[in-house]
């Protein structure tokens, strides 16, 4: 998934930082990178709600569905792409497809 790819990219980029803390699982250079999306298994989703180990910053990469339907304690910063995948019918092809579109003004206000 795109969320997993983003987590992998953040994890690999964090390996280039000077500060080395612990390289295990998804923790490196004081960063813990975790995905969160609707189709994840429950036990993997629970990792997001657990407190980060002492001295570790937790980065959660989430879909808009996960971000709008859950409350996660301890969030300090949120980086939002300003885009969402939206189902759209293509009459020429006769198919539904997901299209990446900018979020609406009301969605942007809610995400603040």
UniProtKB/TrEMBL annotation:
Gene Ontology molecular-function annotations: 3'-5' RNA helicase activity; RNA binding
Positions of the Helicase C-terminal domain: 1-112
SMART domains reported in the protein's UniProt record: HELICc
InterPro entries assigned: Helicase_C-like (IPR001650), P-loop_NTPase (IPR027417)
Matching SUPFAM superfamilies: P-loop containing nucleoside triphosphate hydrolases (SSF52540)
Highest taxon, organism lineage: Eukaryota
The protein's name in its UniProt record: Helicase C-terminal domain-containing protein
Organism: Sphaeroforma arctica JP610
Lineage: Eukaryota, Ichthyosporea, Ichthyophonida, Sphaeroforma
